[in-house]
Amino acid sequence: MAENEEKPKYRCQWASGDLDVLYHDQEWGVPVHEDRKLFEFLTLEGAQAGLSWTTVLKKRENYRRLFDNFEIAKVARYSEKKIEQLLTDRGIIRNRLKVTSTVDNAKAVLKIQKEFGTLDEYIWRFVGGQTIVNRWKSMEEIPASTPLANEMSKALKKRGFRFVGPTICYAFMQAIGMVNDHEVGCFRYTEV
To answer: Mind listing the pLDDT tens digit for each residue in 51-93?
Structure first.
């Protein structure tokens, strides 16, 4: 290797395709504290259930467009007619339960905002406001869920959220930086 040549970066094993790499390198694990963005991630993680994350990433811009850029108050007011329109658009995952859960979850977020001020304030309480830094050496070590994700799942379900099982909650926690699950050898591990 020439002196001025950059050594290839090692990244988490799951980031293989172009979209995955871009998402991994720029967003995954970066702490998110803005309610609209938190709602977007919660929606997308729920939409992913049973599918690959790449499938969701390919449809992400359509989700933003069709769900009014995840403006919580707007989504909470969606009518049955609007839901029917969404279900005809191939740009998103056209699963009635997933689409209606997004509307229900928006309503639940509004209640949390009323009680706690922000969704951010509520959600980050589960980790005491600080990112949990794990030390996984390989993807195989990373759990699909944790007791903390299970606790979050139960709490969210009690507040009327849907599509928030423990696995979805853990993926959400990873995505929004509540936990740093980058492999220790990954160049993003120390960056986030």
So the answer is: 999 999 999 999 999 999 999 999 999 999 999 999 999 999 9
Alpha-carbon gap, residue 125 to 130, rounded angstroms: 9
For the entire predicted model, the pTM comes to 0.94
The domain in which residue 160 lies consists of 30-191
How far is it, in rounded angstroms, from Cα 145 to Cα 161? Answer: 18
Number of independent structural domains in the chain: 1
Task: Identify whether 45 is a catalytic site residue.
Answer: yes
78 is catalytic: no
Catalytic one of 40, 45, 122, 136: 45
How many CB atoms neighbour CB 106 within 10 A? 22
In a domain, 5, yes or no: no
Task: Note whether residue 17 is domain-resident.
Answer: no
Q: Which of 28, 53, 122, 124 is catalytic?
A: 53
Query: In this structure, what CATH number is given to the domain that contains residue 167?
Result: 1.10.340.30
